[in-house]
Design a protein that fits this description.
Strand content: over 45%
Order of helices and strands: EEEEEHEHEEEEEEH
Strand order of the largest sheet: 1-2-5-4-3-6
CATH superfamily of the largest domain: RimM
Helix content: under 10%
Shape: elongated
Number of helices: 3
Length: 175
């Protein structure tokens, strides 16, 4: 059985499109064109992920019009608001300092001046910039903006994120 933990959030069905059972889905991805050849997707319905086969995909500015196999307008109306997922193993691997948020969870965060800060346990991505939430061994939480200027290295082999936090930021959280 496929679980949400083994998948990533692709987007959400926001409305029907046309009269033939198509839906418009907002795609929460950097490059929607990468999904122009989708042949299936997992739709979250009543807490379960249900596979749907796709007949056609038309990429739009901020999403895609999807036509599921044998869909009717009445069925499409029921899918509005449903989240869409794809298996994690369909993501292309990233290298260097590029990474998917899920792949660095649990990594040790090491600052160039302060040394080990603790484990990365969350990334908040609901503001102007993503923020790393690091669980310091003292029990305190350290929040560090996740921007290229602060990120020095992603060491996948040793599960370490090396950063150079702005002067005084770490001290602010550990006082």
């Amino acid at each position: 059985m496929i679980t949400k933990e083994s998948c990533y959030f692709l987007g959400k069905i926001v409305r029907t499109s046309g009269l033939k059972g198509e839906v418009f889905a907002f795609l929460d991805v950097d490059n929607p064109d990468d999904y122009a050849e989708l042949d299936s997707v997992l739709v979250e319905m009543k807490g379960s992920l249900v596979p749907f086969f796709i007949e056609s995909v038309q990429i739009r500015h901020n999403g895609a019009v999807l036509r599921f196999e044998e869909a009717t307008l009445e069925e499409a109306e029921k899918w509005v608001g449903c989240a869409l997922y794809l298996p994690l193993d369909t993501l292309p691997p990233l290298t260097g300092n590029k990474f998917y948020y899920h792949e660095v969870m649990g990594f040790e965060v090491v600052d160039s001046l302060r040394g080990g800060l603790g484990k990365l346990h969350d990334i908040m991505d609901n503001s102007a910039q993503p923020v790393m939430c690091v669980a310091h061994p003292s029990g305190k939480e350290i929040l560090v903006p996740l921007i290229d200027a602060f990120l020095q290295e992603v060491d996948r082999e040793n599960k370490i994120l090396r950063i150079q936090a702005p002067e005084g930021l770490i001290d602010f959280y550990l006082q």
